[in-house]
Amino acid sequence: QERSNPISPHIKNSRMKWIVTVASLLCTGALKVPRNTTVATSVLNEAVKLTQSDVDVLHKKLEIVMDGLDSMVKGKMAASKIAPELKEFIKESKEVLDQINSIKDPATAMEKLKHVKAGMASLTSDLATRQESLMKEEKSQKVNLLLGVLMTH
After folding, report:
1. Residue 25: partners with Cβ closer than 8 Å, 6 or more residues away
2. What are phi and psi of 67, to 5 degrees?
3. For the CA atoms of the chain, what is the radius of gyration?
4. What is the distance between the alpha carbons of residues 106 and 37, in angstroms, rounded to a whole number?
5. Which of 92, 119, 136, 138 is the most buried (most CB within 10 A)?
6. How confident is the model over 32-60, as pLDDT tens digits?
7. Which phi and psi angles does 79 have, rounded to 5°?
8. For helices 106-152 and 52-74, what crossing angle results, to 10°?
9. Would the pTM of this model clear 0.70, i.e. be above it?
């Protein structure tokens, strides 16, 4: 006979019960997750066993993206309003990518690469938000222009 789970008595799947139980424990604070990222990273690395080739693959991808962004900023986007911020982002990211070459521990190198990757995700999100606001602004300007034209007639 299966014990009843007071947290989720209506869930029959044992894996789902386990997930719900862990999530409940995390939410209530009964189960603590280590806040020390070094400990969490080392535990994860033991489970995954990062290799230098994993670091090299991500490093190469990020270098290609940074080189592409750099050529865009120096070319078509040179006069844009966001060019100075992009240049600074690219400069800082390339500095981190250059530092990776001297790091011998794959876990530490991967951690730094993931920070660069997270920065790129944040940049992408910020650019999408900015594009959306520009599109709304453009639409608003068109509506105002049309209203002005209609009011003059």
Report:
1. 31
2. -65, -40
3. 25
4. 15
5. 119
6. 545 555 555 555 555 567 788 888 999 99
7. -95, 0
8. 30
9. no
